[in-house]
Amino acid sequence: MRKTIVSMAATAILLGGSFAAEAKTTLRLTLQLPLKSSLGQNVAAFKKEVEAASKGDLEIQIYDSAQLYKDKEVPQAVGSGAIEMGVSSITRFAGQIPAVDVLYVPFLFNTSDLVRKAVAPGSPVRGPIDAAVLKTGNRILWWQAYGSNVVLSKGAFIKTPADFKGKKARVFSKSLATWVSSMGGAPVNTAGSEQYLAYQRGTVDIGMTGPTTIKSRKIYEVMDHITLVNNAVIEFVVVINDKKWKSLTDAQRKVIAAAAVKVEAQLRDHQARLESESIEVGKKNGMKVHEPTADEVKAWKATAKPVIDQFLKASGALGKQVYEAAQKL
């Protein structure tokens, strides 16, 4: 009888341990960039923070380099619950929320101070955008800084708007597409993970991206000129399926929210250094860099009006609201 009781107790302990192991909550996160990229390192820091603070109750599994989903597929995948979390360019929500393209209106956010004010949690620009994105089933946990837009080319610099004429240019938002078209170029919407091949194969003649891409995707192998136009700010967001978020315990949500705040600030504080380092890597690998002169900047800024008009026409009341809020910053 004693042996039976001991055996039952041992079984209960084993089962209890099994149930405890199964109780751990796993959140899968899809990322289009390599883990070594600035965004990859940022989500890796988030994973470390969450798993440590939750004492193993939460596990974050990262699938980088578009193993599961391409950038443009993330909003639908996370919003539907096909995967719990994902990293996406904010502009990938423009199909449902045209107002998010406010970040790509040329020269609206042309200083780091303006960018910080615009993307601060609860700001009059970010707040309404976060709320609109939530309606798609995606809850934004934090925004990821990716730097100012630079223009890439091969063989010669792109120094003036006229240099776009007759050329195919990689774009990743409707506002950028309008901008390229207004200068006589042909916009080609290209996912971040497809950039390298697009440049290598000549699918596009001109590239647009954040400077850190030069290093993380080895763009210096397929492009050799960089123009620091800085016409737009590039932002990514880390989203979680809202139903999954609501299913978590209060303690779990608190851990995730705290980690999100911490890693968002870390990346933004280091962004200028990361951009500079990536451009230096490009230079060491043969890339040439051009910083526009005052006259060239004036010419570039003169191209903004068609984009502003088109943005306001397409984005409705929300677009007008965030555009005016941006101007007031």
Tally of alpha and pi helices: 12
How many β strands by DSSP? 11
CATH architecture: 3-Layer(aba) Sandwich
CATH H-level superfamily: Bacterial extracellular solute-binding protein, family 7
Quote the CATH topology.
Answer: D-Maltodextrin-Binding Protein, domain 2
Structural class: alpha/beta
Which strand order do you get reading across the main beta sheet? 2-1-3-10-4
Which residues form runs of ≥5 with pLDDT under 50? 1-22
Order of helices and strands: HEHEHEHHEEEHEHEHEEHHEHH
Q: How many domains, in number, for the residues?
A: 1
Q: How would you sum up the global shape?
A: globular
How widely separated are the two ends?
Answer: 78 Å
CATH class: Alpha Beta
For the largest beta-sheet, the strand count, sense and barrel status come to:
5 strands, mixed
Output mean pLDDT: 91
Kindly state the percentage of residues in helix: 40-55%
Radius of gyration: 22 Å
Strand content: 15-25%
Describe the structure.
The protein is an alpha/beta fold. The protein has a single domain (25-328), classed as 3-Layer(aba) Sandwich (D-Maltodextrin-Binding Protein, domain 2). It has twelve helices and eleven strands. It has helices at 2-22, 38-53, 74-80, 112-119, 126-134, 174-182, 195-201, 212-216, 242-247, 250-284, 294-301, 304-328; strands spanning 25-30, 58-63, 85-89, 138-148, 150-153, 168-171, 186-189, 207-209, 225-227, 233-241, 288-290. Strands 2-1-3-10-4 form a five-stranded mixed beta sheet, sandwiched between helices. Strand 1 (25-30), helix 2 (38-53) and strand 2 form a beta-alpha-beta unit. Residues 1-22 have low confidence and may be disordered.
